[in-house]
Amino acid sequence: MSLATLLVLADGRLPSGGHAHSGGLEAAVAAGRVREVRDVGGFLRGRLQTTGFVSAAFAASACARTGAFMDLDRGLDARTPSPALRRASRAQGRALVRAGRAMWALPDVGREPHHPVALGVLAAAAGLGPLEAAVAAAHGAVSGPASAAVRLLGLDPYAVHSLLAGLAPEIDRIAADAAARADDPVDALPAAGAPLLDIGAELHATWEVRLFAS
């Protein structure tokens, strides 16, 4: 396993469109649920334990497989009630596959896979394993919203990154748990839900003016 390769895959500057998404934070800010650094910490922790855990498990499973990615795609559809979130995930997956093809030889994963599936496929193509794919997914589930929080609320970036540092042990734990399930059937993979993220995403999709795509 190459740590440098994992850093490439988890780097927020990878041209995969992640900077255009707030992970539901923009809707939470507009609803008044997130106002300060402490609120951001709660949001990130909740997102990690729900969406982040599911994403990590599906990324690990996609990394461990040699095909049948459509089964994983359908499994993520079933776990994503919000059409807006499904569109956002597939848009990011498409962009990630495009970036990945410039770096590694990828198997056919479809034109517009869900982001966690694309991430797992890229991890395998880069020579990484399910644990590394899960780490990248779990880290991305919180690093994107953390970056968005600085832009949306004008927060101290040092304070926000302190939150990410504090979450590192939890990210490791979530990733290890997710990777341990990489060989489970799709129906047995985690299905932790976050209804407020789904509701917020649908409301956010109706806005005429917004800073982030999701």
Compile the SSE list and pairings.
Elements (H helix, E strand, L loop, with lengths): L2 H8 L14 H6 L6 H28 L4 H10 L4 H19 L13 H11 L4 H24 L3 H24 L14 H10 L10
What's this, in brief?
Keywords: Chaperone, Cytoplasm, Nickel insertion. The protein has nine helices and no strands.
3D structure, described in words:
With 214 residues, the chain is mainly alpha-helical. It has a single domain (22-204), classed as Orthogonal Bundle (Urease accessory protein UreF), CATH 1.10.4190. Helices cover 65% and strands 0% of the residues. It is built from nine helices and no strands. Helix 6 (115-125) crosses helix 7 and helix 7 packs antiparallel against helix 8 (157-180). It is globular and about 45 Å long. The model has no long low-confidence stretch (mean pLDDT 93).
Whole-Å distance between the termini? Answer: 33 Å
Q: What is the total number of structural domains?
A: 1
The CATH superfamily is identified as: Urease accessory protein UreF
Structural class comes to mainly alpha
Run of helices and strands: HHHHHHHHH
Query: Helix tally?
Result: 9
The major pleated sheet works out as:
none
CATH topology annotation: Urease accessory protein UreF
The gross shape turns out to be globular
| Helicity, as a percent range | 55-70%
Q: What integer is the average pLDDT?
A: 93
Which CATH architecture is right? Orthogonal Bundle
Q: Kindly provide the radius of gyration, computed on alpha-carbon positions and rounded to a whole number of angstroms.
A: 16 Å
Main location: cytoplasm
Family: Belongs to the UreF family.
GO molecular function, one term: nickel cation binding
Function: Required for maturation of urease via the functional incorporation of the urease nickel metallocenter.
